[in-house]
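Input chain follows. Return C-alpha cells only.
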Amino acid sequence: MAESVQPARLPRAPSFVEFVALVSFTMGLMSLSIDNVLPAFGAIQSSLGVADANAMQLLIFAYMIAFALMQIVYGPLSDVIGRRPAMMIGLAVYCVGTVVAIFAPSFGVLLAGRAIQGMGGAAIRVLVVAIVRDRYSGREMARVMSLIIMVFIVVPVFAPAIGSLFLWLGGWRLIFVSMLALAAIVMTGFALRMPETLHPEYRFPFSFRRILDGALQTVTTRASVGYASAMGLTMGVLFGYLMSSQQIFQTEVYGLGPLFPLAFGTIAAVLGVASFVNSRLVRRLGMRRLSHFGLCAFILTASLLLCAALLFKGKPPLTLFGPLLAASLFVMSLMMVNFNTMAMEPLGAIAGTASSIIGLYTTLAGALLGLLVGQAFDGTVIPLGASFLALGIIGLMVVLWTERGRLFRPHSPDPAE
C-alpha cells in the first residue's frame, strides 16, 4: 500500500493574547531601533569625530527616511507573496543594516547602516498593520492596534536605559549588537508561530496596474487621505520631540546627564498609559469621539506649553515643563492609533498596498516635520512648544475637512465608527 504524503505543517492560528504579544514584540523592535541609540549620541559624536551636536539627529532621520520610502515596496510585495515571507525579507535587510552599523568606521557609514536598518524595519510598520487588518476591522481593530501601539510606545520607557547599559558594558557598538539579537528572535517567532493571514481572495499576481489602482483608490478615499494627513502631522509632533529630547533633557536645557533615561522613560510611560486607555474606551466611545477629543485637548495643552516656554524665556522649570509635555503627548496618543485605523478602515481589500502608501506618506511627513522641529532647537523649548501648537491647529483644519465640518459624531450606526 502506498504511503500517504502528509502536507507540510503550518503554524496554527495563535490565540488573541499570543497574536497581540507576537506582533507587539515585533513592533517593539522598530521602536527600540529608534530610541535606544539616543544615550549614545555623545559617545558616537566623540568616537567618530562629529563636530555639530545637531548632526546627531541624523541618526534618527536617516533611519526614518529610508523607513518611509521602503514602505511602498512591502505592501504590494506582501499582497503577492504573502505577509510572512515579506516580513522575513524585511527583517533580513534590517539585520544587514545592523551589521553595517556595528562595524561602521565613520559617521557616514553609520548613517548608511541606519538607512539600511530603516529599509528593513519598514516591513514591520507595513505588515503589522496589514496583518491586524487581515484579522480584525472597525473598533476591534482599533482595540488591537491600541494594545500594539502601547507596546511600541512603552518600549522607550526602557530603551534609553537599555542603551545606556550596553554603552557602559561595551560601548555604542554593543547597542547595535543587541538590536541584531532581537531581530533574530523576532524572525524565529514569526517563522514558528505566525501563520499566513492574507485572505486567498485578496492574493493577486504582481501587476503594476493593480498597484496603481490600489494607490488611486487610497488617495481618492476622503477618509483615508484626511486621516493619513492628520496622522502625518501627529507623527511630526512625536518625531520632533524624539529628535530634540536628548538635547532638552540630557545636555543643553535641563542638564540631567545620566538621569536622561529616567526623564525620557517617564514621558514614554505616559504615552503607554494613553494607548491602554484608548484600547479600553474605543469600543464604547468610538474612534472619532476619542481622536477628536484628543486633538482639541492637544491644542489646549500645546498652547499652555508654549506659554510656559515664553514666560520663562525658553527654560521653564522641569516640574512645569515635564507635566505639560506629558499631557500633550498623552492626548496625542488618543489621536495617533485612531487616525491610522480610520485611514485604513475603508481599504480592507487592498490592505497591504494601502498600508504601504499610508505608511510612506505618514512616516515621510512625520520625519520631515520632525527634522524641521529638531533642527530649530536653539537651546530652549520654545521651538518645540510653537511647533506642537502649529501642527495641532493644522491637524484640526485637516480633520474638519475630512469630516465635512463636523466633529465627535459617528457617520452611521456602523460599529466601525
